[in-house]
Every structure is written in structure tokens, then in C-alpha cells.
Design a protein that fits this description.
By secondary structure, this protein is an alpha/beta fold. It has two domains: 229 residues, 3-Layer(aba) Sandwich (Rossmann fold), CATH 3.40.50.2000; 97 residues, Glycogen Phosphorylase B (Rossmann fold). This is Alpha,alpha-trehalose-phosphate synthase.
Length: 336
């Protein structure tokens, strides 16, 4: 029976160590949640970084590996330097802002490229070690854009898919990357390249034509004697699990508490990662402007913003968090 090998920067788990030992628990991230079903149903493996385990004792690390194996997860350990330069550096200081059209945040030099390339090679080599004929390999997201081609070199007959979980920018934006050609050729190692929307597919197709002279005919691109399919496959949510969640007593109690605190106030809610692409400061400023211009709403409006901390070791995110906290403090001092 063929297996599904999922490959992503992070494994869908979090390693927790305390006085009682070490445990491996499911993560709550979007990618982990969205792909948990295919992983559980396929009987395959999930390859990725388990997080920082450098402070674990040898016995604790052995326990982690045993628990990961039980969940069919294959760990790839990254050094602190690799995390800093591959993940925090090239992935999240170059590719992330560029794909979100925030060119002013992209460094002038891509000095972390070589580490990005080497970590992608490590991922590919680990997948190859666990590959069995007939397996389908599904690579995920911008941190691993070189992996499809690296796998194609090593496993010419393998079935390889890639899904890009963030926007793919216009060709005018993408071509500003010094390593644009390497990244495009990396993706073209896949048999199927997926995006969330048709506009991202259009941007990708335009980029292929502008930079590589490759034309998308229908939903395929010819590359090295192969036909690479490109398409939009919107990733939804597990609606049933959310329906079940809202009926749980703990959730109902939380809702009751918020309604009691709000009283007769109109309650507004925002839920986002604490990320500069989410527009939280703009949202807060909109609430402030409403209270400035419409005094009748003062005392009648309660705005709750849930902001899940993200990439806390990246300087841009720490600065962003300070800005959000300052805005919240200012608005509450004026109208709270």
C-alpha cells in the first residue's frame, strides 16, 4: 500500500519538558491542523523539525524520539544557527515579507541563502532515506521551496507534490529576489504545485513565463520532459470539529464570561496571529478613530483582540508586538 510522506518545516507537535518528564503533544498551528487528517488516515510519515530539544538530556531526547515514532513523525534536528539563518533569516526575513508585498522589510543582502539551501538539502536527504517505492511525497510551504527539485534529482520516478500556503506575488515583485531562478526551478521538481487561489496561480504562471520562458498550457507546464500540473486548491477548515468545539462546557463558560463583562456593550472580536501581515494596528486605530468621531459609542463598545504570539525571536515581530501593546495601552487610557 502506498504511503503519504508529508514534509514541512515543523512537525505537527510540540515537545514539552517539566519535572514529570517530557511529552509530545499536538500543535495548534494552521498547517498542523489542516494536514492532521491526511496524516492519520494515510499510515505514512511526517518529516519536520520538532523544535528546540537542545536542553533535553539524552534520556529525555530518547523519550521524545520514541513518542515521535509512535505518531509516525520523523525529526530533523536543526542547530541554533540553522534556525536563526534558515528559518528566522531567509524564510521569514526574505521570503515571508516579499510574498506579502512588503519589500521595505526585505534585507538588501540575502546572506542566509546558503544556509537555506543546505537545510533544504538535509530535508530532501532525510525524505529519501525513508522513501519506499510507490510513496507520494507532499512538500509544504515557502521554507522548503528547493526540496521538490532536490528530491527529483535523487528520486526521478517519485510522485512529488508541493503546496504554497502563503501568497505568491506578482512577477514584478518575485523577480526582485536575487535567487529567483533557483527557487522557481526548485518548485518545478514537483509533479503538482498547489496554491490557495487562482490569482496566485496566475502570478506563478506569469513569473515562469517572464523569468524562464515557460508557458502554462491549460493547467500544465512542460519541464525537463515532464508535465507539471499547477492549480488552485483552497484549504478549508474542519467544520465538524469547530461545531463540536462550540458546544463544549468550557467554551460555553468562556462565552458567558465575556458576555457578562460586556454587559450592554457591543462586543467585537478579532482573532489573529501576532504577525505584521494581519493588520492589527490598523484595526486598533480604526477603533480609536470611531471613538474619537462618535462619542456616543464610548462606553458602549468592547473590542477583544486575541493575538497569538508568533516568531518571538525575530526582531521585526518583537517590534510589532511592542507597537500593538502601545496602541492598546493608549486607547484604553483614553477611552477604557
Amino acid at each position: 500500500m502506498s504511503r503519504l510522506l508529508l514534509v514541512s518545516n515543523r512537525l505537527p507537535v510540540t515537545v514539552k519538558a517539566d519535572k514529570d518528564g517530557v511529552s509530545v503533544v499536538p500543535s495548534a498551528g494552521g498547517l498542523a491542523t489542516g494536514l492532521r487528517g491526511p496524516h492519520e488516515n494515510s499510515g505514512g510519515l511526517w518529516v519536520g523539525w520538532p523544535g528546540d530539544v537542545s536542553r533535553l538530556t539524552p534520556a529525555q531526547k530518547a523519550s521524545v524520539e520514541e513518542q515521535l515514532a509512535q505518531q509516525r513523525c520523523v525529526p530533523l534536528y536543526l542547530s541554533s544557527s540553522e534556525v536563526s539563518r534558515f528559518y528566522e533569516g531567509y524564510s521569514n526575513q526574505v521570503l515571508w515579507p516579499l510574498c506579502h508585498y512588503l519589500l521595505e522589510r526585505v534585507p538588501r543582502q540575502d546572506r542566509d541563502w546558503e544556509v537555506y539551501r543546505k537545510v533544504n538539502e538535509r530535508f530532501a536527504e532525510l525524505v529519501v532515506r525513508h522513501y519506499q517505492p510507490g510513496d507520494t511525497i507532499w512538500v509544504h510551504d515557502y521554507q522548503l521551496m528547493l526540496v521538490p527539485a532536490l528530491l527529483r534529482e535523487r528520486l526521478p520516478q517519485a510522485r512529488i507534490g508541493f503546496f504554497h500556503h502563503i501568497p505568491f506575488p506578482s512577477s514584478e515583485i518575485f523577480r526582485t529576489l536575487p535567487r529567483r531562478l533557483e527557487l522557481l526551478r526548485g518548485l518545478l521538481g514537483a509533479d503538482l504545485i498547489g496554491f490557495h487561489t487562482s490569482s496566485y496561480v496566475r502570478h506563478f504562471a506569469s513569473t515562469l513565463m517572464q523569468l524562464l520562458g515557460l508557458e502554462k498550457v491549460g493547467d500544465h507546464v512542460a519541464q525537463d520532459g515532464r508535465q507539471v500540473r499547477v492549480g488552485a486548491f483552497p484549504m478549508g477548515i474542519d467544520a465538524k470539529s469547530f461545531e463540536e468545539l462550540v458546544r463544549q462546557p468550557a467554551v460555553l463558560e468562556e462565552v458567558r464570561g465575556h458576555r457578562e463583562k460586556a454587559g450592554e456593550q457591543r462586543l467585537m472580536l478579532g482573532v489573529d496571529r501576532l504577525d505584521y501581515t494581519k493588520g492589527i494596528p490598523r484595526r486598533l486605530l480604526a477603533v480609536q478613530r470611531l471613538l474619537e468621531r462618535e462619542p456616543a459609542w464610548r462606553g458602549k463598545l468592547r473590542f477583544v483582540q486575541v493575538a497569538v504570539p508568533s516568531r518571538t525571536t525575530v526582531e521585526d515581530y518583537a517590534t510589532y508586538r511592542e507597537r500593538v501593546n502601545e496602541l492598546v495601552g493608549r486607547i484604553n487610557s483614553l477611552y477604557g
